[in-house]
Amino acid sequence: MLAMACLILLLDLFVKDKKRTLTFVATQLTLVATAVLTFAMTSADVGYTFSNMYVGDLLSDLLKLLLYLTVLVVLFYSRGYILEREQMARGEYYVLVLFATLGMMVMISANHFLTVYLGLELLSLSLYAMVAMNRDSVPATEAAMKYFVLGALASGLLLYGMSMIYGATGTLEIRAVAERLDTGQVDRTILVFGVVFLVSGIAFKLGVVPFHMWIPDVYHGAPTAVTLFIATAPKLAAFAIVIRMLVSGLIVVSSDWQSMLILLAVLSMAIGNVAAIAQTNLKRMLAYSAISHMGFMLLGLVTGVVGGDAPFVSISAYSASMFYVVTYVLTSAGTFGMILLLARNGVESDDLDDLKGLNKRSPWFAALMMMMMFSMAGVPFFVGFFAKFSVLQSVVAAGQLWLAIVAVLFSLIGCFYYLRVVKIMYFDQPIDATPIEAPMDMKVLISANGLAVALLGIFPQALMSLCAVALLRSL
Amino acid sequence: MEFKTFVFYFLSAILVFAGLRVITARNPVHAALFLVLAFFTASGVWVLLQAEFLAMALVLVYVGAVMVLFLFVVMMLDINLDRLREGFWSYLPLGSIIALLMVAEMGMVLGGNYLGFLESGVRQTAADESNVQAVGRLMFTEYVYPFELASVILLVGIVAAVALTQRGRRKNKAVNPSQQVFVKARDRVRVLQMPAEKRD
Question: pLDDT class for A310, splitting at 50, 70, 90?
């Protein structure tokens, strides 16, 4: 993967092609080849390498395959968009995407706090640059600057937390930390101190309240293609590091981080859903919805170890979370893909008004968008419903009824703005009535994405059990 | 008092003084120079702890590279300090409350155990093994994977910096010799026919 990224960088030097077709194709081929490699090396047992810094298990394999798929789809979606923009249609864009993907792979199969940190930095550094790619746009530059400053602060917090944990346990290897904690001979105050910093750092990267300030600005300011990328793939990796660090590393102090995560989850569901109502910009609205979704996902993690560490309960709760993340990534890829599709001819169309009367302009795309919105809102028989349902189930199973009630209440509030999008599409008069044209590959792909949302809603069992098996084998 | 302890307190005093001056100095260049002094004394403290690799890295990387760049930037930017200071007094109450709260929280969490740290002695290394060697060996054996990753991060930094700053190919000003040879006088000099004007 790394080798290919370097190769593509060199290749790009010699390719004069305006469209960068070769770079594009090479990037996609790399992703496919890595996916095949990962798939071929998938094994049921857990393997460690690089002096226990790298772990290969079913969880990492599954997440990586999903990651490749997401990045592949994202690149297909964004191709048309970045070709229309002079500044972004360069080889560096693809190279940065590949490096970010590499960073996420490192995060997913990290077994050492140091590798978690390095993978995270690799990812964020590429993302900062990608946000700033469109240099002539003031919002993009501002977003990149904010993202960079706040991201650096969060990395600092994370690193500080890690160093505290090192101080308490004398090791940075995640399994060894867990073992050391089991013996009970650690300085608890330093450990808790470290965990606080660690959780804040993670919360920033996930973008949950009160560390959410960057999300709306970055989603709004960044070029839509980059927003699509930020909104999808890194969520998978962030989920992986949460599982690795908190669940397999610091399970002993779970009572400490659980209460923190509950607070974060409730706050982000509240603020995310309520603030989204006031937005007129579609990207900003989706940013707030991302905050609330991440809060919902944390709920599943919170309920993992209640009830005497029964392994069955915890696995089902984590797999509910994982299912939630996967479906969220799928749905938001579709939604942002749709925004990209509408943003043709160099004009952004990310205001809610631009969606007016989409049904008259293109009934099929309107129907697809409706599916995405219903899925995000959690209307039954779309995949989002089952994701929410399984998380709530695990919350109730953990005996925290009030949390489940709060979550349902806030998702009801959230329904309002998703359904408003549907209303705008179907019942408002279009501003310009030109029908929407899209290239064939885009049409096919986005239809497949929409149908996947619907089909997984009807048959969620396969993916759900896949998540459960992967977690069961890995934890 | 042992000589080592004396040196430690001496260096620490300079360090604290320099650190204070960094944030209180009015002139940014002075502040940067005090930061250099702080780094230098900190590296002295490292040497006392027998961590000569860290000491060298601190001097080479921070004093040698980072601070020089920093000084350049400070000198080149014409920062209006008075304008920066304007908001100071209005933000002071809120800022100090937050700072006090954070200090109190940290104090509560850490409690009295903090003093326990000072007791733990540094393990003495054998005289014949320098820790530069030890760091090098570890870096290329056990920690080779993170080390490689760090290099990839640097590569991304380069790519990103180039992607963000390079604006297309610059107009090439080199001359083409073969075209120069074939140049004719006609192309260079144009003779104009102008009617002569009579002076009054």
Answer: very low
- Which residue type sits at A212? H
CB contact under 8 A, B152 and A132: no
Name which of A84, A71, A431 is nearest A228 in CA terms: A71
Chain A contacts to B (CB-CB under 8 A): 2, 6, 9, 50-51, 53-54, 90, 92-93, 95-96, 99, 102, 106, 112, 114-115, 118-119, 121-122, 125-126, 128-129, 132-133, 135, 187, 189-190, 192-193, 196
Q: Could you tell me if A295 and A265 are in contact, meaning their C-beta atoms sit under 8 angstroms apart?
A: yes
Mutate to test the interface with B, among A114, A128, A133 (most CBs of B within 10 A): A114
Take residue A130 and report the two structure tokens written for it: 């990608």
Confidence of residue A454 (pLDDT cuts 50, 70, 90): confident
End-to-end CA distance of chain B: 103
Nearest to A155 by CA among A129, A176, A174, A128: A128
With respect to residue B26, please indicate whether it lies within any of the assigned structural domains.
Answer: yes
Percent of chain A at pLDDT > 70 equals 81
How far, in Å, CA of B78 to CA of B198, rounded?
59
Render pLDDT for B160-192 as a digit per residue (tens, 0 to 9): 887 777 665 556 677 778 877 887 877 778 888
CATH, residue B11: 1.20.120.1200
pLDDT confidence of residue A211:
80
CA–CA distance, A404 with A396 (Å, rounded to integer): 6
Inside any domain, residue B21 = yes
Q: How far from A268 is each of A72, A191, A229, A279, A296, CA to CA, in Å?
A: 30, 26, 22, 16, 8
Residue-wise pLDDT for A232-264, tens only, equals: 888 888 888 888 888 777 777 777 778 888 888
Question: Which residue type sits at A392?
Answer: L
Q: If pLDDT is split at 50, 70 and 90, which confidence band does A397 have?
A: confident
Q: Is the peptide bond before B146 cis (omega within 30 degrees of 0)?
A: no
- Domain membership flag for residue B90: no
pLDDT in tens, A62-121: 887 788 788 888 877 777 777 776 666 566 777 788 778 888 888 887 888 888 898 888
Write out the residue range of the structural domain in which residue B6 sits. Answer: 1-78
Residue B65 domain flag: yes
Q: What is the 3-state secondary structure (H, E, C) of B26-81?
A: CCHHHHHHHHHHHHHHHHHHHHHCCCHHHHHHHHHHHHHHHHHHHHHHHHHCCCCH
Q: Is there a single domain that holds both residue B4 and residue B65? A: yes
The ipTM assigned to this model is 0.75
Per-residue pLDDT tens for A107-156?
A: 887 888 888 898 888 888 888 888 887 777 788 888 888 888 888 888 98
The contacts of residue A239 (CB under 8 Å, 6+ apart) are A63, A297, A321, A322, A325
Phi, psi of A110 (to 5 degrees): -90, 140
Question: What's the number of domains chain B is made of?
Answer: 2
**Would you say the C-alpha torsion A286, A288, A292, A293 has a positive or negative sign?**
positive
The percent of residues in chain B predicted with pLDDT above 70, rounded, is: 78
CB atoms within 10 A of CB A404: 20
Domain count of chain A? 1
Boundaries of domain holding A415: 2-474
Q: Identify the pLDDT of residue A173.
A: 80
